[in-house]
Description:
Structural class: mainly alpha
Radius of gyration: 24 Å
Distance between the termini: 58 Å
CATH class: Mainly Alpha
CATH superfamily: Sodium/glucose cotransporter
Number of domains: 1
Order of helices and strands: HHHHHHHHHHHHHHHHHEEHHHHHHHHHHH
Strand order of the largest sheet: 1-2
Strand content: under 5%
Helix content: over 70%
Largest sheet: 2 strands, antiparallel
Number of strands: 2
Number of helices: 28
CATH topology: Sodium/glucose cotransporter
Shape: globular
Amino acid sequence: MLHTYDWIAIIGYIVLALGVGTYMAKRASASTQDFYLAGRKLPWWVAGTSLVATSFAADTPLVVSGWVRSAGISQNWLWWGMAVGGSLSFVMIAAWWRRLEVTTDAELIEHRYGGTQAKVLRGFLGAYHALITNTIVLVWVLVAMKKIVVVVLDLPEDQNWDYWILGCGVFLALVYSFMSGLWGVVVTDFFQFFLAMGGALLLAWKASEAMGGLDAARDAFAAMDESTTAFLPSAKIDPGTGDPYAWTHPMAWASGGFGAFMIFFGVQGWLNKNADGGGQAVQRFSACKDESHARGTALWFHIAHYAVRPWPWIFVALASIVLIQDDMLPQIMSGGEMGPDHEAAYPLMMRNLLGPGLFGLMCASFFAAFMSTLDTHFNLASAYLVNDCYRRFLAKDKNPRHYVWVGRFLEIFIGIVAGVLASFADSINDLFTFLLTLLGGLGPAMLLRWFWWRANAWTEISAMLTSTIGSLMISNATFQAWAVESLGAELKYPLTYVLVVGLSTIVMVSVTLLTQPVASERLTAFTKKVRPIGFWGPYKDRSQPSRRIPVMAGWLGGVTLIYSLLFLPGAWLLDRDMLPYEIGAIVGATMLRWSWRRTVT
C-alpha cells in the first residue's frame, strides 16, 4: 500500500499540473491558434521536449520491458528503425510544415491538391485520425495505466478495477487539457519529461542495488544469452528441427529474427504512419516561432527519443529477467495464446524495489508520463474534429471562442470513447503493431506528397483504402488458415506489414497514373510557398542551387549521429567497445552541421 510520503509526492504533482492548467486557461481561450498551437510562439527546446514527453507515456517502459524479456534488446528495432526516415524531419520536412502554417496534418491536403476530392479527403482524414488512430493510441496508454495501478497497489484480482482506474485517469488528464489547450500541455510536458526520466533512472539505480551493484549487474548481463543482449538480431530457430528458418519461410520474417530487422529498418523505418512527421509532431512544428525552431524541435526530439530515454528501461528489463520469474507475472491472452504478461514486469519491479517516498516519486513520474500523452492526444483529436470537420464543413464563420469551446467538449467525448474501449483491451504490443499495419500503406503516399508533383488526392485515398482493407483481410481468421495450409505458418507482424505496404504502393501508383494531375495553379502556389525538393518537373525552381548533396549529407549524418548516440550507452552497459560509436557520433554531427543551412532555402 502507498505510504503517506508516496501520497504527498503524487498529490503534489497533480496540484502542480492543475495549477498550470488554471494559470494558462485565459491565454489558451483567445482563439484556436492559441488553444491548438500556443500562438505559434514556441522555441525549439520547449516544443521538442514536449514532443519527447508526449511520445513517452506510461505504456512505453512496459512495452520495452515486454520486448526485452520475451525477444531481446533487438526487438526494439520495431521503433528504433523509424529514425531512418524520421531524420528527414530535421533535415527539411519540419521546415516545410512550418511554412504551410497549418493546424493539423490533414489540412495539408487542400494546400497540396485542391478540388472536391481534396476537400472530402481532408474531412475524412480529420475524422479518421481523431476517432480511429488517435483513439487507439489513447487506448493503449490507458491499458498501461490499468496494469500499473493494479500491480503497484496490489489490488485484488477477483474484482474489476478498470472503470475506477480509467475514469480517474481520463478525468484528471481532461481537466487541464480542457482548460489550457496546448499552452498547458507544453508547459507541463517540460516538467513531466524530467520527472519521468528521473523516475526511470531511480528505478534503474535501485535495480542495480538489488543485483549487488552496477558491476555485478553488468556481469550478470554479460552472462546472458546473446539473443537477449545483442543489438542486432540473429536468425530465429525452428523449434521442430533446431535449424535457422530459411529466408523464404514466413517465420524468418515474422518471428523477430534478422528478417524482421530488415523490415523494421528498410521498410517500416521509411514507410510508416509518421513518415512525414505524424499528427503530434506536425502540431509542434506548426506551433514553433519559425522554421529554424521547427527543425531544432525535430532534432532534439530524435536525440532525446532514441539516445536519452531507452537505456534506463532496458536496464530494468534486463534486471527483471534475473529478479522476476515468469510464474510471478499475471497471465494474459496475446496472439491467441495465454502466457505471462511480460509488460507487467516493470511495475512489479517498482513495487518490489522502491520504499516509501521513492515509490511515490516513481508513481508520480509514471503519472506524469501518462498525462503528457493523454493531454496531447485529447488536444490533437479535438483539433482534427474542429479544424478539419466542424469549422471546415458545418460552421465556417463563428467567433474564435466558439471553436475553442466546441473543441473542449469534443475532448470530453474522445476521452469517454477511449476509456470505454480501454476497458476491453489487454496487450499494448498488439494495439501498437495493429495501428502500424493499419496505416502502414499510407506511408508511401505521405512521402510522395512532398517529393513527386504527380501525386494527387486519389493517391492518398487509394492508399488509405487499400491499407485499411488489406490490414483487416490479413488479420482475418480465414486468411490465416489459408496461410497455415499453404505456407506452413500464420502470417504475423511484421511480415503482414510488408504485404500491406507493398499492396498499397502498387494500387496507389497505378491510381495516380490513371487519374488527372493536380491543377497547375495549385502546384505552383504550393511549390512557391514550401520550396520542396524531388521530382517536381515543370514546377521546380531552377534558379535555386541543387540541394541533393547537402540533403544526402544531412540525412546520412543525422542517421549516423542518432544511432551512434543510441548504442553508446548500451556499449558501456554491456561492456563492449565504445570507440566505433564515439567516432560515429563525431562524424555524424560534423556532416549534419555542414549541411544544416544548405538543405533548406
